[in-house]
Amino acid sequence: MQREAHPSREIAELVRLECRVFAAKIRMSRALLGWSQSELAVRVGLTQRGIHKLEQGDTDPRRATVRAIEAVWLDEGIEFEETPDGGFRVTVRAALVDRYPAPQGRRSPSVVPRSRLFSI
Hints:
The protein is 53% helix and 8% strand. It has 5 helices and 2 strands; from the N terminus they run H-H-H-H-E-E-H.
C-alpha cells in the first residue's frame, strides 16, 4: 500500500527547489559578469549579506527582489529559461561576451591540448 504525499510537504519542497534554482542563477550570473556579491547588491538595492543569503538557497526572496535581479540580468544580456525538469537553460547575448574579452596569455578553457585527451 502506497502512502500519498501530503500536499503541503510537496509545496514546501517545490519552494525549496525554486530557492535553490534561483540561488544557482545568481551565482552563475555573477560568475558570467565577474561581479562580487557586493557589486550585485548595490545594483539591486540589497546588502552583500542579502545576496550571500540568497545564494545559499535557504532564503525565499521577495517578489520585488526577484524582479530587481531579473531586470539586472536582462539589462546585462543574460536570460534564463526554465526547463520541465525544474532546471534551467541560460542564454548569454554576444554583447556580454564581447564586453569581457579573455585574458591574454591564457588558453581558452574549451580548448584541451591533445596530450590531455584520453579514452577509457
